Amino acid sequence: xxxxxxxxxxxxxxxxxxxxxxxxxxxxxxxxxxxxxxxxxxxxxxxxxxxxxxxxxxxxxxxxxxxxxxxxxxxxxxxxxxxxxxxxxxxxxxxxxxxxxxxxxxxxxxxxxxxxxxxxxxxxxxxxxxxxxxxxxxxxxxxxxxxxxxxxxxxxxxxxxxxxxxxxxxxxxxxxxxxxxxxxxxxxxxxxxxxxxxxxxxxxxxxxxxxxxxxxxxxxxxxxxxxxxxxxxxxxxxxxxxxxxxxxxxxxxxxxxxxxxxxxx
Length: 265
Known about the structure:
The protein is of the alpha+beta class. The protein folds into two domains: 97 residues, Gyrase A, domain 2; 130 residues, Isoleucyl-tRNA Synthetase, Domain 1 (Orthogonal Bundle), CATH 1.10.730. It has ten helices and four strands.
């Protein structure tokens, strides 16, 4: 079955996945969820943290304690360990919900991104190299270059569709340095933004942030050399992040911004 672009975004956006389950958990408490669920990313150095204020408007309309409503929604939130809904969720403060995917859920999404056959529905002519999106085009070309190098490298060969060692022996992400985690965060933030809105300016902003974070990762986190010899699993995890980022950049460039995604510059 060929998935639509919207289906692809809903599959990979943690925001879309969590929003759908919050809506279901709200209805399970005999409450009417609003048309728009107020969910947003919160800066956190160790987690892909989301914050939701749905209990506040519900409490106002029901004349109830927002903290109790938040706790009831959290209790009804169905988690699926090892699946897309492998989230932690808690009621905090005066009625806010905090939720975040587990390292295993993040690893699973990164793996699926690295091997997923994104549909190509571009029908309009695609523009060539452009100054306003050159950073995005350069980042995509850099991804392609790194993957070509890996295909030629017998010590760290890259085979499309292979599993990457995302987790260590304790089930934690191998990619835990600041530049690595910021690149992962920007990757999912760009997918969240596209799932929420097709506004070109907003998509360009998210895609530019992803390009900056990816290039910072490329600058600060080596794949070859000593890392390749001494910590091969980490080197392969970093290569996996390149493989997961490349199709998202291509999608953002060609599907959302209507410009060419070059494989080399």
